[in-house]
Structure formats: structure tokens, C-alpha cells
Amino acid sequence: MFGEIEFPVSAPTRGDRGDSLEVEETTALGAGKLLARKELAALALLSLLFAWPLAGRASAVTIAREGQPAAVIVMADKPSPAAREAASVLADHVFQISGARLEVLGEGKLGNVEIANGRINASPSGMWGNGDFVLLGQSHLARRIGVSIEGLGPGGIVIRTFPNALVLLGTDDATPSDPSGTLYAVTTFLEDALGVRYLWPGESGKVVPRMQTIAVSGLDIGFSPALGQRIIRWEDYYAPRHGPALERLGFTEEDFARARSEGSKTRATTPNWMKWHRMGGTLNVRMGDGTILPRETWLKFLEEHPEWFAMQLDGSRDQGPEKRPGGRPRLCKSNRELIEAIAREKIEELRRNPDQRSVSLCTHDGGAVGMCMCPDCKTLDPPEGRPTKNWSYDHATGRTVWFDYVSITDRMVHFYNSIAEKVAAEYPDVLFGGSAYSVYQAPPVRERLHPNIVIRFVGLGYYTDEHRRRGLADWDAWARAASRLYWRPGLLEWNRRKGTPLIYVHKLAEDFRHIAHNRCLGTDFDSCHHNWATNGLNYYVLAKLHWNPDLDVDALVEDYCRSGFGPGWRHVHRYLMRIEDLTDQVSAREWDKDKFDARDAGETDPYTPEVVAELRGYLDAAEADSGDDLAARRRIGFLRVGLDWADIQAQTYRFRDLARERKLTPEEWAEATKLLDRRWLMMRRIFQEEHFAVNVTTVTWGDWAWFRVLGWTGPSEETRRAASGQSRKPALETEDPDKVPEAAD
What we know:
It contains 21 helices and 21 strands. By secondary structure, it is an alpha/beta fold.
């Protein structure tokens, strides 16, 4: 039998609560004014006191005893969608942990209920009359026992124990901008009280402790997330660019969907990885590339008013390749008739949608056609603005040309303000979504923003230390210039074309905390590209920081390693921190600004044969220490896929770089060709066997053309025949899914 076991993490946090946001209607962002925020919650949920006290402790709420249910889950008779989902998640995880299947009841089935000194007494007596209770979501019974959502902001949660009840609830539908609070409460409880972890998608990334008896006590947490919008974009869809990439690998769209679905499966009911980590909420501000106008209006304006579009350096306003459906034409931001027309469009949009509280002013980014270079637009660009590289479309050659210019932020702010002033005259509380991005990332020099403009800041990255420094400085300047601001960085895009290991969690934690404490309303990170065996620690730490920006990054990393990698966790920790050292070396390089390419910034260079051997040594030592811990060995094997990928990528890129310098010898060419064919076979195996280890689909889209310099456009017929014989081998089973944990002696 189990003895009495406690697992204290730190001092209890009874009664300690994160400061909540004010709630104004349905969102964390007010329409007419910026909502006041109290200081960010200092409560670190990882420091929740948790224990599994067993029989003999009157204050403990027992959920399962000796593999049998000892409590019942009670919800409102008409629970919220979040509470319904949370009930399945909680019941399934309790079953996977202990073998006990909890019953889920509506509170009306309890019969007469009396509450005395915080103890629930239900009659007629029965299972729920003599057992303990898990009150899930808002209900009459939760309010009677003294728990409500009063004082919580959107997405807020309560976790509290009573003499014979555990209460897990959130704001749910009371805060429609973030209606998943009860689910957040359950995943928080499973992590911080029961030790469950979700390191990466799929069952191999789930850490689920096994014990026959589960009992908890001393929990009293009230917490609201400081960020009203917490988004990491999840590349979990079939995009048009995937088509050619999949074809090159010998797969189909159906293969892609099946691999994603199978790779994501878990034994217990589990929300997707992001939702498990409490990503969610919305600021309800309309944004998006080119969404200033609907597509049909873009086409109408192109046909009827070509003078409203950007003049290129050659004097033409023709939008060339961007006139096609799905193109990204540019506007002449100084054109008064255009501004009037867009303002009319926005007023009509608001009239058609009386409940709409914001409109987008976001123009297109990217594309072959550059910003307007007409005299009127250029007068809006202060010559003292930050120097930039701008681009223009040359109609004679059909090519994009680059030239030195200055930031056009003041031009963009003038454009935003001009529309906002006209629309706000009729709709004074409406918000306007605009961007600080690309050649208008720098803060404005002369212009001052209309108070109803919300800026999404797209800066800050870790390609180089200079990118990071400038991004932080720009955020601080925009925080002074704008009344409303949120962070939409593309820093996770780094290395998506190569997929090699990059870790920057210490920089990320430091910068996230700085930004979260400096007028940030929310986030929208672009994007998680599912390189979990190479970049997964970044995703994990980033998700945790979204819920609580004040968490200690070193504690998070140690917990990640301890939880997932068993007795060999210290070696895994050394492995990951060594990769962070290598990543810092890449970022510390100084580049000629005219030669720097963020798509190809030397990310494979550190992975020399000596470094790869060193890293293999860490994983070998971790595996040796793991003994018969199959789950830990399985996860170490997952990381090893990422290291094998780094090794072959480094070798192929060394040949590519050599071929750019000189002609390869026949022997070198033959070796490079064989290596690229091996790489192709490895990509197919990863796609089939460890789909979330490296996103080989995006890599194939991103770097395939870079090997044409080696004369390689695809694998040989012999290699393709070898691939046709590949069969998918099942992932290593970590444990019998039907086995109930046995009691220890």
C-alpha cells in the first residue's frame, strides 16, 4: 500500500490572487478608452502547493482511492461549453492517472443539499452523499459554498478546496472575449496539482503520473491572465504552398491531414496543445494583411481608379503582377479621394454591422510592387527618419529593384489618422486596427496617432542581436506613441525553411516580461511551425509565459526536463542549454546589412561534426541513465530525430555553400548528391513516423530551390524506389493503455 506521501513545491499560496483586469462588456479592450490594468499578477502557478495526502487527513479532498472513484463531478444543470469540455478532460485524466472513472452529474441530481462549515451534505445519501465533490464551472452550488467569479477578468479561474469539495471554475460565458476559464482551471489543476505535463503534441509529449489514490488540500487560487489576447498561430492547416512540397516528398494532401491527426492523438480527452496551455482570448480588433478593403473593392478600385495606387520609381502606377486575384496591390497613401472613399466604405461597414466595434486599416504587406513614390507621398516621409531598404517594381524588366530610402511610418500614420478622423466623426467609439511593420516598423517622427488607433507591432526577432536590440527599442517608442498596442512578432518564423535546432528561451523570457509589463494588451505570434524536436522548448516556454509573464525561465526549463526525461534529465538539460549557446553564437554575428538574408542566416553553421558528437553524447548519457523508463527513452529518441536532422542539414548546407564559392569536383558532387538523396529519405521517414519532430513539409517548400546550385532537383529513381519500400513503423509504446497502476508495496 502507499504510505502517506507529500510533494511540496514551495510555500502555499493560500489566498494569494493575481490582480484581475477590469471587465468592460465582452473584451479586455474598451471601445472608447484603454482599460486600466493593475500590475501583472506576481503569482507563479508553478509554485502552487500540491500534495497527495491519503487517509487520515480530514481536510483532504479525495478524488480517487485505491483505483476507485471517491468523488463525483458536479456541474450546473445547463453548464457552459467550457465546463462541458473541462468535465471530459478532467474525468479522462483522472482515469488515466488512477483507473477511477468519475461520474459527472448535473447539480439538480444531488437532491437536497445542505452546507455547514464549508462541507456539502447531500441527501438522499449515496455515492455523492458520503463521498467528496468536484464542483466544475459556475453553478448554484458553487455560489452557495462561497465561490463566484467576482473580481476575475476575462479567462480568469478559481481553484479552491473545502472540507469535502474541490472547486474548479472560470469566467466562461460571462466574459465572451475569453470564454474558456473553466477549462483553463482544469488544465492548471492537472499540471500544478497532479503533475501532468504536455510537452509537445501527441501522446509521447504527454506526461501523466500514475497513482491509485488522488487527494488534494490547501488550494486557494484566484487568477486572471494579464494579457487579454494570447495567440501563437498554429500552422495546422493545408496551405497552397504545401501542395508542391508534398508532391516533392511523394505525399498527398490526405497524407498530410492523416499524419497531423494521428500525430496529435492522446489517450485522454485533451484540448489541442495551445488550448491546454491556456492560449486564448481576443481583443476584438479587426486586423489582417490587406483587410482595409474587401477583395471585390480592391478589384473595383483597380479598374475604376488606377490613380489611387502606388507609383513606382519608373513613374507607372500599374500594379503589374499584383493585379491578379489574390495579389497585393499598393495604395497611394496621400490621395485625398482615396481616403474619402475608404472612409465611406468603413462607415457603410459599420452601418451594416451595428454591433461591430472596430475596423481594419491594414494594407498589404510583401508583394512585388513597392510603396508609392509619388511626390505627395514622399513629402509625408521625414528625411530624418530611420534609413531603410525599400523596393519598387520595374515594369520594363518585370523585376523588383531595391533602393535606399527612409522609414515611411509617418506616411502610414497620416493615412490612418485621415481615415480615423472621418469615421470617428460619426462613430466616435470605434477602434481602428493598424500595423507597425516592415519599412514602417520604426516609430513615427512627426505624426501623432489618433487615440482610437490600435497598433499591432510586428517587430523583434533573434536573427541577430541588433534585430533584438532595435525591436525592443521600437516597442518602447511605440508604447509612448500609441494609446493601444499589442505584439504580433514573427520571431518564431526564424529558421522555418531549415528546421534545425534553435533555442532562445532566456532572451524570450526576458523580452516577453519587458513587453508584457510595458503597455501590451495581447499577442499574436506568427507562427508555431511544428519543429518540436528542434524548437519545441521555445514553444513550451512561450506558452507558459503567456499565462504568467513573471514565471522563472530557469525553473520552467528544469521542470520541462525533469518531467519529461526521467533519471537522465540533467543530460537533456545540458543538451538543450548547449543548443541555446550555439543559437546565441549565430545571433552574435555581425553581418553586412546589404548581404544579410533572414531566410538564410547561417543557422546550420554551428553543427560541425565535433559539435554534433558532443550533443549525441548528452543524449546517449540521458538514455543510459533512463534504464527501463520507456517513456523517457521515447522522448529522448524524439529529440534525437532533431539532432539527426541538424547533422544532415549541416552537411548539405556545407556543400551548398562550397558550390557557391567554386565548382565542385566530381567526387564532391557525387557525395553531395548521395547526401541530398539521404536527406530526402529522412524527410519522408520523419513525415510518417515522427510527424511533429520537424516540419519537413515547410522545409521542403522553403529550401528545395537552394540546392539547384548542386545540380540537384530531386532524388534519383533508385532512391525513389527505395522510398516505395519504406513502411511506417509504429511509435514505441511507453506503457499499456489499458493497464491500471498498481499499488506500491
